Fold:
Amino acid sequence: MYGRLPSLPKKVDSEVLLPPVAADEVLNNNSLIQQLTTSAKDAALLHGVLMRTKEEPASSETTSYAPFSLFPSPVPKKLFMQAFEVQQDFNILVDKISQDSEFLTKALASTVEVDEFTARLFKIYQQVLKEGITQVAILFYPKGGRGGIEPSQSVNRSDYMFEKKQDGSISLKQIEINTIAASFAGLADRVPDVHRYVLNFWGKPDEAAKILNNNAAKGIVEGIAKAWHMYGSSEAVVLFLVEKVSRNIFDQRCLEMELWNKNIRVVRRQILEINERGNLDDQKRLFIDGCEIAVAYFRTGYSPEDYHHEECWDARLLIERSKAIKCPDIATHLVGTKKIQQELARSGVVEKYLTECLKSAERIRATFAGLYSIDEGPEGDEMINKAMEDPESFVLKPQREGGGNNIFGEELKQLLGNIKDGPKRSAYILMDRIKPQTIKNYLLHPGTPLKLSECVVELGVFGVYISIRKCQKMVMNESPGHLLRTKSIEFADGGVSAGVAVLDTPYLT
Structure:
């Protein structure tokens, strides 16, 4: 089973500030860089670091390597470990908030008035609460017999940047927590092998030995498999809810194949297909094309574009009303909204949910950047004025996931000017803009000329949990692995799927 912290290689040298690959004489050695780049691309293809192409995003007939960095990027060991230490605290916090309907209702009240997408999600949440939550698993007792329980499962990912302060120190600051469709665990597991190959090819075996293994995909699959077993039917299947077109299909397949290796059948369906061919029986068991669904694992459903027909909303409600174990359920999905993230930053809120362990609350709060409401009223007015006076110090965030949605600089100032006198401002929150440490690296994008870039890195730590809500007991709480993404400083926002960031590996310093 996966422990609280990742295993570190014995050869990690805490005195090394930057790996040798970051030295300017190496980064500017064009002949060496070209050799390493060619070998790295081949290694990425060999190890399955793959994506479908922009030209044929719905076909696997033509594929290419997923964007990745030529060299592993330096990451402060202390902050890397801090991110892992706090992840299980975040798992507990997310679970507890998802069970507090009063808090969710109050916190999202202003947002649902002006943000249609969040309002539609919240309407489903209200209906499920009114009918009564029905997802059920079977608990087998040691002395025989069995009983029904109400499990909650989540695969989340908390994302961070390394903020460089004026005194030169570096701190870990959370950007967001993703509670639905947290992706790239499958490919992230494979990137370390590519970077080991690059360093060994170059003749740096000691440096290659320092690169960590990543168990993110296996840990996520352990969670899904455990939920499947808890459902109590060996004939039931795991449902992957997926987009109609997915360039990132191989990342999903990594998880799917791990489940098949455990003799757990997986079916892939779009949300619209659930409405067209899915149904609930009189026990509220969910069936699709005759297959009973034990676990509904969402890899879509986080964006308005995912609900392109009204029937998609009907399908989401059908899933939520069923006995299938949702990963995540609608309440946990809502916990990942930016408004909830902002409300958690208020004094005393985190501590309210973690009264049994105030050290957990301290660990969580230490990662928070400044988060501010801009709802109508004196507090919101003050923050809007501050942001318009100094737009480079803030980020404006809508209630959206998937990357590329945040608003910066002059665009932030202009948008705030347009919405400051009306209720639409409640669809956004403000966050202090993190000033991250920068590094140099080569970012390999298919079809893009090779160049040395000044970059920032973003660390994500995956969390997997299963809790029994009636007795408020965690039966699984793990932080199995990580995702490191790197992008050029010329881009303010955007992830790997958006074509901005690349996959990377931490080289602990």
